[in-house]
């Protein structure tokens, strides 16, 4: 049993859908005060009303500094400070390099990697004020562990997040704040559904536990990193993928 997060102030970016919504649901169930942030207000409104608990929302583009700073400051004002930041928002357009416009590369980097820096930078003064803080970044197995055609930019951004947390962990230690990353495998979300049923079926077949992950599988790992009990872990990452990166070959899967 982890020490309660009841009453703690938590931000989840990308909390209107998918993994972010799963993280927000897990924290709200613990009695935390939640702000979910994303660009589409209708989706935010719907998620905030459907997730049971103390949930508000902020419209925010995580790739834009002014937008991120306003979202973090407004949240701290509304929730009596900030204790946990889950920087989860991300995008994964699939385009092979030969067809990729360089602008798409920049957009993916801004949404996935620059955003991690912006959210952490905006949160630092609030962690300093609280005397303590927790950051959980949503990375991926794609990039750090695996490759997939069409995701050169995505994989680079997700590996970049892991590079970022190493130095961030050192700088944040001054504010008694830890930063760690969750690395999901294939998790059943709206974003993943957009890739089509063939993709979902092929992926499920390549996972030793023989199913896609649930968004709350990631929420539970984020909750652990945010807990008092994880207070001596920083700059680290955990893979949550049903064993997907383990098989050495296709034959290895057939042996199961
Ligand atoms: P999703 O279902 O497409 O949801 C993405 C969320 O991020 C939405 O709330 C979206 O809202 C928000 N978002 C996207 N761009 C944004 C921006 N510029 N500013 C603010 N919010 C933004 O995606 P998901 O599958 O849950 O993925 C969430 C995270 O998990 C991503 O970082 C992704 O890389 C990572 N991940 C996912 C999987 C998987 O299998 N699903 C696996 C590994 C890693 P708006 O569009 O309204 O802004």
Describe, in plain words, how this protein is organized in 3D.
Helix 1 crosses helix 8 and helix 3 packs parallel to helix 4. Strands 3-2-1-4-5-6-7 form a seven-stranded parallel β-sheet, sandwiched between helices. The chain has one domain: Rossmann fold. The chain is an alpha/beta fold. 46% of the residues are buried. The protein contains nine helices and seven strands. Bound molecules: NADP nicotinamide-adenine-dinucleotide phosphate. The site of NADP nicotinamide-adenine-dinucleotide phosphate has 30 residues, from helix 1 and helix 6.
CATH fold category name = Rossmann fold
Determine the structural class based on helices, strands and strand pairing: alpha/beta
How many structural domains does the protein architecture include? 1
Low-confidence stretches: none
Mind summarizing the main beta sheet? 7 strands, parallel
Can you give keywords for this protein?
single chain, 256 residues, alpha/beta, Rossmann fold, 7-stranded parallel beta sheet, 7 strands, 15% strand, globular, binds NADP nicotinamide-adenine-dinucleotide phosphate
Summarize the structure.
With 256 residues, the chain is an alpha/beta fold. The chain has nine helices and seven strands, in the order βαβαβαβαβαβαααβα.
Break the fold down into its secondary structure elements and pairings.
Layout: E1 9-13, H1 18-29, E2 33-38, H2 41-50, E3 54-59, H3 65-79, E4 84-87, H4 102-130, E5 133-138, H5 152-172, E6 177-184, H6 190-193, H7 197-205, H8 215-226, E7 237-240, H9 250-254
Parallel strand pairs: 1-2, 1-4, 2-3, 4-5, 5-6, 6-7
Helix pairs in contact: 1-8, 3-4, 4-5
Bound molecules: NADP nicotinamide-adenine-dinucleotide phosphate (NAP).
């Amino acid at each position: 049993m982890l020490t309660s997060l009841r009453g703690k102030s938590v931000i989840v970016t990308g909390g209107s859908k998918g993994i972010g919504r799963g993280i927000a649901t897990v924290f709200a169930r613990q009695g935390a005060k939640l702000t979910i942030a994303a660009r589409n207000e209708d989706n935010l409104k719907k998620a905030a009303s459907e997730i049971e608990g103390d949930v508000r929302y902020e419209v925010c583009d995580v790739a834009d500094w002014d937008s991120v700073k306003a979202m973090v400051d407004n949240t701290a004002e509304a929730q009596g400070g900030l204790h946990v930041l889950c920087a989860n928002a991300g995008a994964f357009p699939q385009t092979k390099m030969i067809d990729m416009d360089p602008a798409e590369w920049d957009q993916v980097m801004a949404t996935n990697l620059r955003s991690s820096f912006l959210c952490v930078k905006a949160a630092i003064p609030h962690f300093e004020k609280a005397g303590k803080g927790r950051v959980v970044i949503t990375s991926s197995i794609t990039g750090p562990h695996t490759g997939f055609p069409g995701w050169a930019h995505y994989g680079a951004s997700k590996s970049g997040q892991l590079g970022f947390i190493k130095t961030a962990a050192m700088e944040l230690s001054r504010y008694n704040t830890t930063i760690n990353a969750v690395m999901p495998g294939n998790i059943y979300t709206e974003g993943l559904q957009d890739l089509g049923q063939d993709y979902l079926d092929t992926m499920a077949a390549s996972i030793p536990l023989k199913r896609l992950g649930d968004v709350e599988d990631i929420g539970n790992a984020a909750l652990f990193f945010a807990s008092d009990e994880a207070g001596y872990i920083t700059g680290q990452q955990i893979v949550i993928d049903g064993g997907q990166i383990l098989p050495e070959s296709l034959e290895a899967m057939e042996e199961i």
